[in-house]
Structures are given as C-alpha cells and as structure tokens.
Specification:
The chain has one helix at residues 14-32; strands spanning 3-8, 40-45, 52-53, 56-57. It is α+β, with helices and mostly antiparallel strands and 63 residues long. The chain has a single domain (3-60), classed as Macrophage Migration Inhibitory Factor (2-Layer Sandwich), CATH 3.30.429.
C-alpha cells in the first residue's frame, strides 16, 4: 500500500487538492503497479512560520 505525503504551505483549495490527489494516484498506480484503492495521499499544510530554507523562515520572505 503506497502512502504519499504532500507537505505544503496553506492556501490550496479543496479542488486543487482533489486534482493533485487524482494525478498523484494515477502516477503511483502506473509506476508501482498498484490500485487506486491501495494508494493513500495525505496532505499536510505547514504554516510559513514553521518552514525554513537556507536558515530563513518562509514567513520572513518578501511576497
């Protein structure tokens, strides 16, 4: 049973997550030769103040 975890900043709509879940499931099924029922996609939204890259919080970056 493949489990795919997608970590991202908040702000995606439910429709965007639905589309990503379908696309990810399709790819996993095609490559791993599994079924959609056996494929799990988990979305976890991480606040920008809890995400850092190159020593800087994402919340500190200019938009």
């Amino acid at each position: 049973m493949p489990i795919v975890r997608v970590e991202m900043w908040p702000g995606r709509t439910e429709a965007q997550k639905r589309e990503m879940a379908r696309a990810i499931t399709d790819v996993v099924c095609n490559v791993a030769h599994t079924t959609p029922d056996a494929t799990i996609v988990i979305f976890q939204e991480i606040a920008k103040e809890d995400w850092a890259q190159a020593g800087r919080l994402a919340s500190e970056e200019e938009v």
